[in-house]
Amino acid sequence: MSLLKELEKSQLRSDLPSFRAGDTIRVYSRIKEGDKERVQYFEGIVIGFHRNGPSTTFKVRKESYGVGVERTYPLNSPLLEKIVLKKKGHVRRAKLFFLRGVSGKKARIREKKDWLGKKGVAVPAEGTPERPAEAAETAEGAERTPESAETKE
Question: What is the C-alpha R_g of the chain?
Fold first, then answer.
């Protein structure tokens, strides 16, 4: 029995990112057509996992030209090139099969916001302007330069 578990453990992949239901991911998979092999990606929302040890699978759903398309991927498959996590979704369910019945704006999932950083300190979002006090101090500092004093006289 332990030999079987060791064999299963050796087949597990550890290079994939952790993701959950509700996350938007891009799955790059190897496709074999004749004697050629290429990489094709499929981007969509993870709607669920079927956890079964080394044969764990996950379903990704997207809507293409008004038609819902779902693909099931084995998590530990050697045909998966890589998985890129695009957005983390904020959902309260493990299976999002209700997305099959809705489309358009009703099929949107809120994005998970990371409001607190390490040690409970609020982290500002990228591209936010400086605080007004800092901007005023830098403006006053620019007025006190010797060049500006010469222009005032």
Answer: 25
Give me the residue label for tokens 């997305």.
99
Domain 2-108 carries which CATH code? 2.30.30.790
The residues near 23 (Cβ < 8 Å, ≥ 6 apart) are 45, 46, 85, 86, 87, 88, 89
CA distance 137 to 69: 55
pLDDT in tens, 87-139: 898 989 899 999 889 888 888 888 887 755 555 565 555 555 555 555 556 55
Please report, for the chain, the start and end positions of each structural domain, with discontinuous segments joined by +. 2-108
Q: Per-residue DSSP letters for 18-74?
A: P--TT-EEEEEEEEEETTEEEEEEEEEEEEEEE--GGG-EEEEEEEETTEEEEEEEE
Contact 108, 66 (CB under 8 A): no
| Residue 139 backbone phi and psi in degrees, to 5 | -70, -40
